[in-house]
Design goal:
Layout lengths: L13 E2 L18 E6 L5 H17 L4 E7 L3 H8 L21 H4 L4 E4 L4 H8 L8 E5 L5 E5 L5 H8 L5 H26 L3 H14 L3 H16 L5 H14 L4 H16 L6 H17 L2 H17 L3 H14 L2 H19 L2
Parallel strand pairs: 2-3, 3-4
Antiparallel strand pairs: 1-4, 2-5, 5-6
Length: 352
């Protein structure tokens, strides 16, 4: 399945949320309507971080013939348990006034159709058929019932607007989509070389891919892999910080990607795999900027990474101040772990 394919009919077992009664379960797609079919899971941080945006998107387009269906493959009990959880912070719904803000994930997702399909049939019909491996992933089904766009739900605003307004250039997007698919195929070949320990061949391939890849997201992924390879080579120590800045600059609008990379630097430093103060300073600057741009759901994790970086660069006061903010921003599932690190920082400050 790809762009232009007929969207498979939905066969979802549990329709948990229905837009407060506004929407009926979907099996066949109606001509003239636009649908967003999104795949998520309760364990997926980026999926949860996308929820406020999904809710706001559904509210924005509810009167324009758009229905958003979010599908997990977990059992109903797991999803119901997740929906009872309190949000990390009041006011997570985009555009909500504080007093009107959702308090639980059930409140937050009530605007759209949140579902789960434990037999995995929907995952197979969409994710596997389209060779999509990571979540969250959204499929825009256009007015003709055909797939118009596939990608991360946080990146679908412009495509969705164009599809709704009949201004979508499918042909141009197909070219971009094929470029991403080609990059993913090259990624698999690259990992095969790395897994076999053929570092010289992998490095040469990485340089070629970084040079020729036009898709910005794929280029950043290749740059991140090259950086990880360089970190394993002691002779590249002087080059690492400069190249890291290039990679982090290219991912500046993606706080979660920044956090993923900088947390890896933290772990490698703490485990004694690398000793590169300049790299840590570069990571600290990028993580601080990312924390300002982060969605509420991811802010706690990013601030935690920032606190670790302050500690590793010798600024305990800033580490403690930042970790207190991380604890305040975190959801219940992270709070205990973050509080434990805060206690460790305070004990270190006290000289215990």
């Amino acid at each position: 399945m790809t762009i232009g394919s007929k969207a498979p009919a939905l066969d979802v077992e549990h329709w948990v949320q229905n837009g407060n009664g506004k929407f009926k379960p979907v099996t066949k797609f109606e001509n003239g309507k636009v649908y967003v079919v999104e795949f998520w899971a309760t364990w997926c941080g980026p999926c949860i971080a996308s929820m406020p945006h999904l809710a706001e998107t559904q509210k924005q387009y509810a009167e324009k013939g758009v229905q958003l269906v979010s599908i997990s493959d977990e059992d109903l009990e797991t999803v119901e348990g997740f929906l009872k959880r309190e949000l990390a912070e009041a006011g997570e719904g985009e555009g909500e006034k504080k007093e009107d803000a959702p308090k639980t994930y059930r409140d937050l997702t009530s605007a759209y159709c949140l579902t789960t399909d434990p037999d995995g049939s929907s995952q197979k019909d969409y994710m596997e058929a389209a060779k999509q491996n990571g979540i969250p992933t959204a499929f825009i089904v256009g007015k003709s019932g055909e797939i118009e766009w596939i990608g991360h739900p946080m990146e679908m605003d412009e495509p969705l607007k164009s599809v709704v307004e009949d201004k979508w250039d499918r042909a141009a997007y197909i070219a971009d989509f094929k470029a991403k698919q080609e990059a993913q195929a090259q990624m698999q070949k690259l990992f095969a070389l790395l897994n076999r320990g053929k570092m010289d061949e992998a490095t040469k391939m990485l340089d070629e891919l970084i040079e020729k890849t036009k898709d910005a997201q794929s280029k950043t992924q290749f740059q991140m892999i090259k950086l990880q390879v360089m970190l394993q080579d002691e002779s590249k120590k002087e080059e690492v910080a400069a190249f890291a800045k290039t990679v982090l600059d290219s991912a500046a609008e993606d706080p979660m990607m920044i956090n993923q990379l900088c947390w890896a630097f933290v772990q490698m430093t703490e485990q004694g795999q690398i000793d590169n103060p300049e790299l840590l300073k570069t990571a600290l600057t990028a993580t601080a900027a990312a924390s300002e741009k982060a969605e509420a759901e991811s802010k706690g994790a990013i601030l935690d990474t920032l606190a670790h970086l302050y500690q590793l660069t010798g600024d305990l006061d800033k580490a403690i101040e930042t970790q207190k903010k991380a604890v305040a921003s975190a959801g219940e599932e992270m709070k205990a772990e973050l509080e434990e690190f805060l206690k460790k920082l305070e004990e270190e400050k006290a000289g215990k």
